[in-house]
Design a protein that fits this description.
The complex is a heterodimer of chains A (about 160) and B (about 625). Chain A is of the alpha+beta class and about 160 residues long. Chain A has helices at about 1-10, 20-30, 35-45, 50-60, 80, 85-95, 140-159, and strands spanning about 70-75, 100-105, 110-115, 125-130, 130-135. Chain A is built from seven helices and five strands, in the order H-H-H-H-E-H-H-E-E-E-E-H. Chain B folds into five domains: about 10-130, Glutaredoxin (3-Layer(aba) Sandwich); about 160-360, NADH-ubiquinone oxidoreductase 51kDa subunit (Rossmann fold), CATH 3.40.50.11540; about 370-455, Ubiquitin-like (UB roll) (Roll); about 460-545, de novo design (two linked rop proteins), CATH 1.20.1440.230; about 560-615, Alpha-Beta Plaits (2-Layer Sandwich). Chain B is globular and about 80 Å long. The chains are: A alpha+beta (about 160), B alpha/beta (about 625).
């Protein structure tokens, strides 16, 4: 783990003003920010771990918890809101049995909402592992989750 | 790779050479690959068009270009075929071969891909004739479709970097600043502060080095013009920054861009690399002896970082908390050095002012708001997209003539401008001429240019709750009025929307608003009450209905509504009973259905799926 963190830090010339992008790259590498990685960032950049923790908990992009295999992101921008995004959010939460920002205990699904993805013409938008699903509605979101559930189940069988 | 251009004259000859190498009559396909169109799956269309061209051995005979956002996001994926500029919209994967065979090779227009003007039913062939474009003044944004953002040659071929050449070789820094002051360029990021004055102050401030920053932390939900400009025409923004840096006397710039905008980060990174290779960025720019370089910094997803002092903190690698504004950034900004910060669109205006002159620029717009403004027109509107109009254009023209009005025959209720710092504007102000000052007068603000249209099915109390809730989670927590005040307002608004509102709540909201406005540290807090105050001002009756009659007139607030079936409209198609997750909606085929209120969770699935508008929400 430390090697990977070191490589990322080197890319930014070990400049501590780049701590936010460094942590973003670390998160991309591990899918979340593991404690050991944060300690490595702290010692390599000579930034106290308390400072690193402050930055990590301040910015929304960071997660101290592992994310699920399927990451669902629902846009809650104003354009999506006026087109009923909140009803969709409730539907997704109800089906997954978790609240926004949480991950299911089996680490299969994470569900979060974001301020605005800037693709308002397609709103409401549900992003599943980076893939955009536009003009979302309650029935469509149910269908997508069903599909993911089935897919997940068959994967398990193969395992 | 382009070799270093060492003077303004050499730049001119490079531009001429590139122009001469381009045949304006050569067939050209331009596909919009802005984030909006990519979300429609346009990348597959691009691949398939390329494949079809290669199959027919036409690669050398056709120019193929992927461009940034054209603005008409509603109709994506979009393909424009030159030289005639035939405009195809909602193009599918299956259309690729036909476009090549019919339109490119035979010059035949494919009828079904044309845009139909809903007002007249007329099919429109050319991009320029589409009413959505025709009624705009596309000054800053209009270059997007002429260039591939990944190719500096495209930008140079439309005389890109001429303004920089002119500024560096024929103008003194003071003259540039005077030109920007005369043009009365005001900041497009929200505040509307005159950019020229800010430049002047930074130039005169003591302390070295001086920093120049491009704020691309576009956080207002429903606004995406800065992203589209940075994605679609990164060299324009960069050129503006370099001119500004020269005028101010800065050698180091930063672009602070939202992490949610990966394509913008990619395109501006490529642009910077190309500009460095061409001698337009870095040391001794165009042989003038002027040095300037730029670093990119990605944000961490905090709305408050769009505020300048919070942005500096974030750039320095700290939590993005703002500070009091009695110390101006122009004197003590980033690392406590003189710093000039402008947003993406502001920088994008600079090359035009230098190239065409302040007098020309000041001829566009209203008395105190010059030039054009790009708005993102979204929400309950037929033509969702980016719209660039001269300052002073009426809201009515933007919503109804360019935007094409409200979908599904619904009635216009309000338009929200200025993001979470702005307000909701009712129908009676539709003829207002939009500029910085007029919007402020009626309790809203320009903000970065988001315009969210709402119809009769949107509850204004719910909208106020939405924005307040957004701000609760985005408040950095440093000052008490913002941290506690907004939270308290949110709690009251939640109570009202849940039917627990009490008499006096509206007055209490007004009083807390005043406290926050007076006491908050930064603009996020100062302007946070605007969505609440403007909805109280124009839609007080909706608040009263929620509080006194425990009723949501728009049918949005869950605790205050019930779902039922309109027996006159229901055809017994059974769709509602199939989508209902709790079995509340039921009935026999071809019989009027019913909704059992005891089982109904008001999830809305039946209403959205009913094709006959037979679900009543009251």
């Amino acid at each position: 783990m430390e090697d990977k963190v070191n490589d990322i830090i080197k890319k930014y010339g070990s400049d501590k003003s780049f701590i936010v992008p460094i942590l973003q790259d670390v998160q991309r590498e591990f899918n979340y920010l593991p404690k050991d990685a944060l300690c490595a960032v702290s010692s390599r950049l000579s930034v106290p771990i308390s400072r690193v923790y402050e930055v990590v908990t301040f910015y929304k992009a960071f997660s101290l918890k592992p994310k699920g295999r399927y990451q669902l992101t629902l846009c809650m921008g104003t354009a999506c809101h006026v087109r009923g995004a909140e009803l969709i959010a409730r539907n997704v939460s109800d089906i997954l049995g978790i609240r926004e920002g949480d991950t299911t205990p089996d680490l299969e699904y994470s569900f979060e909402t974001v301020g605005c993805l800037g693709a308002c013409a397609l709103g409401p938008i549900l992003v599943v592992n980076g893939e955009y699903h536009g003009h979302m509605n309650i029935a469509k979101s149910t269908k997508i989750l069903k599909k993911l559930g089935k897919k997940g189940a068959t994967d398990d069988e193969q395992d | 790779m382009m070799s270093k251009i060492k003077s303004f004259n050499e730049l001119k000859s490079v531009q001429e050479r590139l122009k001469a190498g381009r045949d304006p009559k050569k067939p050209c396909i331009t596909v919009c690959v802005g984030t909006g169109c990519l979300a429609y799956g346009t990348q597959k269309l691009v691949d398939s068009l390329r494949e079809e061209i290669a199959k027919r051995n036409l690669t050398d005979k056709i120019d193929f270009r992927t461009s940034g956002c054209h603005g008409f996001c509603e109709r994506g994926p979009m393909v424009v075929i030159g030289p005639e500029n035939i405009f195809y919209q909602r193009v599918g994967l299956g259309d690729a071969a036909e476009i090549i065979d019919k339109t490119l090779l035979k010059g035949e227009v494919i009828d079904r891909l044309l845009y139909v003007d809903p007002a007249t039913g007329e099919k429109i062939v050319h991009e320029d004739d589409v009413p959505f474009y025709k009624k705009q003044t596309r000054l800053v944004f209009g270059l997007n479709f002429k260039i591939d953002p990944e190719k500096i040659e495209d930008y140079l071929a439309i005389d890109g970097y001429s303004a920089l050449g002119k500024a560096l070789t024929t103008m003194k820094p003071e003259e540039i600043i005077q030109e920007v002051i005369k043009a009365n360029l005001r900041g497009r990021g929200g505040g509307g502060f005159p950019a020229g004055w800010k430049w002047d102050e930074t130039r005169k401030a003591e302390g070295e080095p001086k920093y120049v920053i491009c704020n691309a932390d576009e956080g207002d939900p429903g606004a995406y013009m800065d992203r589209s400009l940075l994605e679609g025409n990164p060299h324009l923004v960069l050129e503006g920054m370099i001119i500004g840096a020269y005028a101010i006397g800065s050698s180091q710039g930063y672009i602070y861009v939202r992490n949610e905008y990966p394509l913008a980060v990619k395109n501006i990174t490529i642009a910077m690399q190309q500009a460095r290779e061409a001698g337009l960025l870095g040391e001794n720019i165009l042989g003038s002896g002027f040095n300037f370089d730029v670093k990119i910094n990605r944000g961490g997803g905090a709305f408050v970082c769009g505020e300048s002092s919070a942005l500096f903190a974030s750039l320095e690698g700290r939590a993005g908390e703002p500070r009091a504004k009695y110390i101006h950034a122009t004197h003590k900004g980033l690392y406590d050095k003189p710093t000039n910060l402008n947003n993406v669109e502001t920088w994008g205006n600079v090359p035009f002012i230098i190239e065409k002159g302040a007098a020309w620029y000041a001829g566009i717009g209203t008395e105190n708001s010059k030039g054009t403004k790009i708005f993102s027109l979204v929400g309950k509107i037929n033509n969702t997209g980016l719209v660039e109009v001269p300052m002073g254009t009426t809201l009515r023209k933007i919503v109804f003539e360019i935007g094409g009005g409200i979908p599904d025959g619904k009635k216009f209720k309000a338009i929200q401008t200025g993001g979470p710092s702005g307000g909701c504007i009712p129908e009676k102000h539709l003829d207002m001429r939009v500029d910085f000052d007029e919007l402020t007068k009626i309790g809203s603000m320009m903000g970065s240019g988001g315009m969210i249209v709402m119809d009769e099915r949107n509850c204004m109390v719910d909208v106020a709750r939405y924005f307040t809730n957004f701000l609760v989670s985005e408040s950095c927590g440093k000052c008490v009025p913002c941290r506690e005040g907004i939270r308290r307002m949110r709690d009251i608004l939640v109570d009202i929307t849940e039917g627990k509102g009490q008499e006096g709540d509206v007055e209490l909201l007004e009083s807390i608003s005043k406290g926050i406005k007076d006491g908050a540290l930064c603009a996020l807090g100062n302007s946070a009450p605007n969505p609440v105050l403007s909805t109280i001002r124009y839609f007080r009756d909706e608040y009263v209905a929620h509080i006194k009659q425990k009723r949501c007139p728009a049918g949005v607030c869950r605790n205050l509504i019930t779902y039922s079936v309109d027996p006159d409209k229901c055809t017994g198609c059974t769709v509602c009973s199939k989508v209902c997750p709790t079995g509340a909606a039921s009935g026999e085929r071809k019989q009027v259905h019913k909704i059992d209120p005891a089982k109904c969770t008001k999830c809305g699935a039946c209403r959205e799926s009913c094709k006959f508008d037979a679900i009543i929400v009251r």
